[in-house]
Amino acid sequence: MKIDAAKVIVCSPGRNFVTLKLFTDQGVTGVGDATVNGREKAVVAYLEEHVIPCLIGRDPRRIEDIWQYLYRGAYWRRGPITMAAISAVDVALWDIKAKMAGMPLVDLLGGRSRDGVMVYGHANGADLAETVDAVGRYIELGYRAIRAQSGVPGLAKAYGVGRGDLHYEPAGVGLPDETVWDTRKYLAYVPKLFEALRDAYGPGPHLLHDVHHRLTPLEAAQLGKALEPYNLFWLEDATPAENQEAFRLIRQHTTTPLAVGEVFNTIWDAKDLISNQLIDYIRMAVVHSGGLTHLRRIADFAAVWGVRTGCHGATDLSPVCMGAALHFDAWVPNFGVQEYMRHTEETDAVFPHAYYFEAGALHPGDAVGHGVDIDEALAAKYPYERAYLPVARLEDGTMWNW
Ligand code: GCO
Ligand code: MG
Q: Is 288 annotated in the active site?
């Protein structure tokens, strides 16, 4: 059996997606997501110029060997572009293998460990009252876990606050949006938000919050401590994690559970965080961390240290990534939660999928493979548009972390 063709499809049904489709001489095809938000074309070039020529003629059944060939063989290991390209190939190969076996992908991974995959939805509002209402709407929709983000008094634009509907997407066409950040205003406000949420909805719902890399380790420790009375499911990306040691300081001061990893690409980014038990949830996504072959290895390593998974699932990860993630989540023994930021109707139509939402959980469905495809004719109606994520500056103009 041979891979005899490969195609990279770029489309923009509301936002940009890069999809790899692999074809075999036996007629079975597979698809993988290769989207890196705001840097999409870099992955397209990596795949078309450097990866696809090495794939043609290879046996698609040799998933592990192809993974090692692309990872070790590049010499320039790791990084988001390399690992997204490897992931796209890996997921397409797992899709092909599961289709050939006539099974949903989860059965190849070891079978289901749970009936549904608990997801958290994104509630946000311009101020405290709007955010409390937004969380209430998610509870009515059946969500058991909800991330709450809110506008901050005195700041024109806060991270995570959308355009007033359910489909928050931060990337915009045109040059990067400039936003202004002030840590003191934010720190004074967030505990009030979670106090209001617990007053309104009691101890039942799992509440999550994303700091989006904005704090220093000491500030993150202060926030974690201040939030302890509200029993968060997790506090995410409390401080940048290039220096994994930074989390030790946070950990020494608070019992609020910590999640990190959506910008990580390999086990090496998380090795010290996990083995020193400095975090509780590892957030790496199928698309940005080398596919299922690498992610399940990370999950097994994390399990040794009692760290659970919480895969990134923002709308810049395509339905193809979501499909693969749900098969992984349904299997992985140390599952925590799956992020679910709903795609627009246009995106859902371009990527027909077997997964579905029911009672606060997503289900991967019973289709063979990972159950997600791309409608190429429809995709062609949404051409690529250059888009960037915003940037953030402090009030005096200093660049900060968005
Ligand atoms: C999340 C993320 C996203 C990112 C986005 C960047 O927790 O869902 O922080 O909203 O900002 O994926 O492309
Ligand atoms: Mg995040």
A: no
